[in-house]
Amino acid sequence: MAFPRLENSFTELPAVFFSRLSPTPVREPELVIFNEKLADEIGLSLSGMDEEERTELLSGNLVPDGAEPFAQAYAGHQFGNFTMLGDGRALVLGEHLTPSGRRLDLQFKGSGRTPYSRSGDGRAALGPMLREYVVSEAMHALGIPTTRSLAVVATGETVYRESELPGAILTRTASSHIRVGTFEFASLHEDKAITQALLDYLIRRHFPAIEERENKPIALLEAAIEQQADLITHWMRVGFIHGVMNTDNMALSGETIDYGPCAFMDAFAPDTVFSSIDHKGRYAYANQPLIAQWNLARLAESLLPLIEQPRDEAIPLVEEKLNGFEQVYKAKWLAMMGNKLGLAEAKKEDESLITDLLDWMHQNKADFTNTFRDLGRPELPDDELYASESFQTWQARWQARLGEEELDSSLALMHSVNPSVIPRNHKVEEGLQAAESGDLKPFRNLLEALEKPYEDGDHLTPYQSPPKPEEKVLQTFCGT
Ligand code: AMP
Ligand code: MG
């Protein structure tokens, strides 16, 4: 058996949620990268196949026996505006059950037009697909819930964006592809059974603990608040900026999804934005928790009709839950930032120690990743920033507070949450540019450097330095 038989639980939902169709064949597919480790881990090593067969499969030219691919319907708020969307250039090939019993969607991105393509060409370019590949794999290695990347195939076709680019298809795996926008789409229908079916399906697939709860829509909202607060806390921990936190890009699996103009921050600045189309900084680093709450409010609105209480009781109940996000997130953030400073359990009084360091970093344009990593070293590196009076005043306060902790465990804790290496945007761009001109070596080296981000090593040095002024990538284009 070369390819396991895929399942299709999603297509048992009402037919409005999907359109069945096959990938559009591509001219001259070439396997650019295959994630052997992920493949082994999920039981999809395709070991019985030669490269040509693998390539045919991962380009969508060959649909495995029994698979019934489909594009998903959804809507969403993009930069605050409601739009009808759907998979315009993606298809779910089916659901794969891993040896450990996990159900994973296998999705192609860039696989051709669908009924939801609107004016789009249904295709993707090599650079952005490799960007998703490397950033999603880095996020996974950092211990952050994320979709993953199994392969990238070049199509041998040209896609037309601002310029002519090589086309590609990404195969990603995801715990599911149900988004806040899927609920927004469901709630557009007169028949509330449509939203109910989606809710029941989501609970079965991701929140079995809720099955017993009486008020399921409220229980789901509570669970989603916890889940998204956890996810955003992780993002803030590593300086990740998603870039397009539209409601269609918020997955209710709790995984980071849809890597477009995303990037990691170098020098700490809370208003950092990378997306070239985010003029108002809606999706800036420091805004991400607020946007998560905003998106959850759109989820709550979609769930309202399912709440059995009268509307004038249901609305205050929902509002109370939504307002609670702030506190839930704040508690998680405080605990995590405390950990980054070696505090096992940060207290309310520790907050100023954290914010004062962040303010200092902001004023001094200190590198977010390196500063935290340095704090956990036996000795601070020789750097004039650390010799400054402003830093030393802060450091003395921190040392005094650390005195209440057990030093070895503080250092171990800091090492486990402060990465020594992240996919810095200038290194990602360097890898993508080389790959576009046919040299995959820098991209592969980058992937390798990101595999164990909490370890140190000389081989990591080239990936640890912040960009020099001329290397800085100021914007990441959505040109996907
Ligand atoms: P994204 O910004 O990648 O989350 O995409 C937003 C929406 O635009 C989704 O519905 C995508 O399927 C759709 N889309 C993006 N690029 C294309 C394309 N080249 N062709 C068709 N649809 C697209
Ligand atoms: Mg999207």
Question: How would you characterize the overall build of this protein?
Answer:
The chain has 480 residues and is of the alpha+beta class. The protein contains 16 helices and twelve strands. Strands 2, 6, 7, 8, 9 and 10 form a six-stranded antiparallel sheet that branches. Strands 1-3 form a two-stranded antiparallel ribbon. Strands 4-5 form a two-stranded antiparallel sheet. The longest helix is centred in the C-terminal third of the chain and has 30 residues, at 311-340. The protein binds adenosine monophosphate and magnesium ion. Residues 248-249, 258 line the site of magnesium ion (MG).
List its traits.
480 residues; alpha+beta; 6-stranded antiparallel sheet; two-stranded antiparallel sheet; 16 helices; 13% strand; binds adenosine monophosphate; binds magnesium ion
